Amino acid sequence: MANDIKWVRTHCARMDHGGCGILVGVKDNAIVRVKGDRDGLLNRGYICPKGLASPDRLTHPDRLKHPLRRVGERGEGRWERISWSDAIRTVAENFAKIKERFGARGVAFCQGMPKGIEHFVLIRLANTFGSPNVVSVQDVCHAPREVTGLHTCGFYPVADFHHPSRLVLVWGSNLTSTNEEGEISSLLLDQVKEGTELIVVDPRRTRLAGKARLWLRLRPGTDNALALAFLNVIIEEGLFDRDFVENRTHGFEELARHVKDYPPEKMREITWVEPDLIREAARVYARSRPAAIQWGNAIEQHMSAFDTARALTSLMAICGNLDVPGGNVQANEPRILPLGKFVRADLFPTKWKEMIHTHHHTIPKLMTVPPAFLRKAIIEEDPYPVRGAYVQCSNPLLAYADSRMTFKALNNLDFLVVADIFMTPTASLADIVLPAATQFEFNDIGHYGLGHGYILARPKIVDPPGECRSDIGILNDLGRAMTPEEYWYDDPDDLLNALLEPSGLSYPEFAEKGHLKGDARFRKYESRGFRTPTGKVELYLSTAEKFGLRPLPEFTGLPEEDDPAYPFVLTSSKNPYYMHSSYRWIEKLRKKSPEPVVEIHPETASALNIREGDLVVIATKKGEITQRVRLTGEIHPRVVNASYGWWFPEEDITSEDNWAKANLNILTSVDRVGKEFGTPNLKGICCALRPAG
Ligand SMILES: Nc1nc2c(c(=O)[nH]1)N[C@H]1C(S)=C(S)[C@@H](COP(=O)(O)OP(=O)(O)OC[C@H]3O[C@@H](n4cnc5c(=O)[nH]c(N)nc54)[C@H](O)[C@@H]3O)O[C@H]1N2
Ligand SMILES: Nc1nc2c(c(=O)[nH]1)N[C@H]1C(S)=C(S)[C@@H](COP(=O)(O)OP(=O)(O)OC[C@H]3O[C@@H](n4cnc5c(=O)[nH]c(N)nc54)[C@H](O)[C@@H]3O)O[C@H]1N2
Ligand code: SF4
Ligand SMILES: [Mo]
Questions:
Q1: What torsion, rounded to 10 degrees, do the Cα atoms 186, 191, 193, 198 define?
Q2: Fewest Cβ atoms closer than 10 Å to its Cβ: which of 203, 416, 424, 565?
Q3: 157-329+523-547 domain in CATH 3.40.228.10?
Q4: 68-137+339-437+463-486 shares its CATH topology with 157-329+523-547
């Protein structure tokens, strides 16, 4: 029997940012086994439980299989099956109506975490349709790191795990569970076995913290204060790279004066980290070269995301770790179509002036609309009305901060289209639901446009079920129906071929190769400087005044001021078995993590008369949810680590209870957001606890 299995090489996708090379065993148009590929560029044989379970998504009986049109009231759950041509026509007609009354900008194109090239095809559709409003979750995911990097040093500095580092400073990143964007934990763990040291900054003792030389258990939401204290120590003690600082940085003197205000002794109160530990960690980082900072979501899920990313980029710079092997590097792209060309940015040169967030004076170079501002536009028509939305690869009702605001906004729309693989709480509010094909079911390219310097092949392996179609194919059809046909293709695979054209490869040839990677070149600044206005790393931002930005990173206060009615500090981390709100319907994964769990310290529990396994109400000023208690001595007694992304596919999807009762974003708010990226506070907010019932 084993002989009938055909093995195909591809890359894992959609269970997180993806990237592991995998071997897929196929028999009779069905996937029967998956294993890690020893030749995988990013993983060298590693595979995680989500990757192993990923084929189970394809065959689930409740998968969406046909286009649906709402027949009852919005959210009532009554649908009729329609044909694809009806679906495409209905979407095109309704968006055209909105365009006529409110302009193309009245339609928003919303993307969740980018999963493949569908994100960029969506931007192309928006550009050709004439809407500047592509919305994404980047406000809390990568934009703060990427865009701050662009302003500070001209590129997005990513940790280089492909060359040895003496030390990796893991800052708010739980790599062994999340394998975030191109950084698969197995490569880091291999280095640790070879002697690379770790310092971990995390309120929880993560698996990497368990292997670290130093673990800094900071108060959630105080990363910028801690990073400023690192800068204070390194500069006061003269531990920086003098040559680099002198020749390659702008504004060192100003930074040095400025960080005098942030000594570890003073930052202890804010961060809860002992001054001696801060000093030691800063010294070890500065003295271990090359060192990489592996930074995660935690640094960009509060209003001070910009300052935190500025402070950490400054740390990389003054210690001489930018663009050196084993440090934080600027990846070199392979020869493929540049992003701007692929998305047809040329058709819409005035886009920057018209985007919703431009009216909120966000930071230049922010490409997508922050969800806080999208919903303001829908609900308050500020800065102008948005009446229609196309949502792809996203579940905003669970993923955006302040779920009740999202509910209100989605209900306010004249026309909502959701493309998903499963009926979700968001899809259940749509006028049209489109059944998407997913990973393994169509040709795709991974990691395009993410700045990591490679693209990965994900060839089609099996046919999609029912009438499911790839997002790329759906968007190509919508493009033909809604915008001039010349921008689209007869065969959606030609979008992939166009992207690959500069490499001289067709998609099948690329799929044969598996990946394309730019050359490994380092210290590019030696020949061409840094791509900033001063040509140097801008420790002091030369454009600060022009753009209304703070020139130097600051600590401007806690995410929320302490409040005795809400004495605990709430944070969260991602579930190793799920992707955000996705896949709780996959049995193998659900068995591993059956229900939402909140971690609290035993002392806190006993003071509140709460025991292991109890249901507990977590309350913030915004709302309340219920989760099951797990006791752990490894977090601070004031810290509460709740689960994120929970809804219940096995229960009635039309009930508000389903998406509201355990959903972390019932507790979060967008009343205050960071100016630069529109980022709300997701981590480090005040909460109260009480036994449920
Ligand atoms: N299994 C799984 N993997 C995923 C995802 C998923 O949903 N599930 N999502 C993918 C996506 S889109 C992303 S962006 C990445 C994100 O991947 P990560 O950056 O690893 O994201 P998180 O798990 O949110 O947080 C990382 C760590 O931050 C810690 N933390 C919490 N609050 C704070 C704080 O205030 N400061 C500091 N320094 N640390 C804090 C948490 O304890 C956790 O260990 O993961 C990707 N991979
Ligand atoms: N409180 C709090 N909020 C957060 C975060 C947090 O840590 N805390 N993390 C934030 C981060 S980092 C991110 S990236 C966002 C994530 O936000 P989203 O990307 O919206 O997250 P998901 O809930 O995973 O929604 C993805 C949806 O895509 C569907 N899907 C899967 N494959 C396909 C496909 O091939 N095609 C289509 N059309 N659909 C598909 C899934 O079924 C699922 O419903 O959430 C953010 N929100
Ligand atoms: S770590 Fe991510 S890419 Fe690798 S197998 Fe797991 S889910 Fe897939
Ligand atoms: Mo993310």
A1: -100
A2: 565
A3: yes
A4: no
Question: What's the topology of domain 2-54?
Answer: Phosphorylase Kinase; domain 1 (3.30.200)
Q: In what order do the strands lie in the sheet with 167-171?
A: 214-216, 197-201, 167-171, 291-295
Is the domain spanning 68-137+339-437+463-486 CATH 3.40.50.740? The answer is yes
Q: Which residues line ligand 2 (CB under 6 A)?
A: 14, 112-113, 115, 137, 140-141, 297, 301, 392-395, 398-399, 419-422, 424, 436, 438, 471, 572, 579-582, 644-645, 664-665, 668, 682
**Residue 270 near residue 225, CB atoms below 8 Å:** yes
Strands 79-81 and 328-329: unpaired
Q: Which residues contact 48 (CB under 8 A, 6 or more apart)?
A: 15, 20, 179, 576
**Do residues 670 and 680 lie in contact, with contact meaning Cβ atoms separated by under 8 Å?**
yes
DSSP 317-385: HHTT-BTSTTSEE-PPPPSS--HHHHTTGGG-TTHHHHSGGGGGT--TT--SB-HHHHHHHHHH-SSS-
DSSP state of 284: H
Using 50, 70 and 90 to split pLDDT, how confident is the model at 693?
A: confident
Query: CA dihedral in degrees (135, 141, 144, 147; nearest 10)?
Result: -60
Q: How far is CA 571 from the centre of its chain?
A: 17
Cis upstream peptide for 371 (omega within 30°)? no
Supply the DSSP symbol for 627: E
> In degrees rounded to 5, what are phi and psi of residue 153?
-130, 5
Say if pTM beats, i.e. exceeds, 0.70.
yes
Structure tokens at 282: 């800063």
Cβ atoms < 10 Å from Cβ of 207: 15
Q: Cα(476)–Cα(643) distance, rounded to whole angstroms?
A: 37
Domains of the chain, by residue range, sit at 2-54, 68-137+339-437+463-486, 157-329+523-547, 568-691
d(CA 13, CA 585): 17
How far does the centroid of ligand 2 lie from the alpha carbon of residue 574, in Å?
12
Pocket of ligand 3 (CB under 6 A): 12, 15-16, 18-20, 43, 47-48, 50-51, 179, 184
**CA 621 from centroid of its chain's CA atoms:** 26
Q: What is the mean pLDDT of residues 113-126?
A: 97
User: What class has domain 568-691?
Assistant: mainly beta
pLDDT one-digit tens code per residue, 130-185: 999 999 999 999 999 999 999 999 999 999 999 999 999 999 999 999 999 999 99
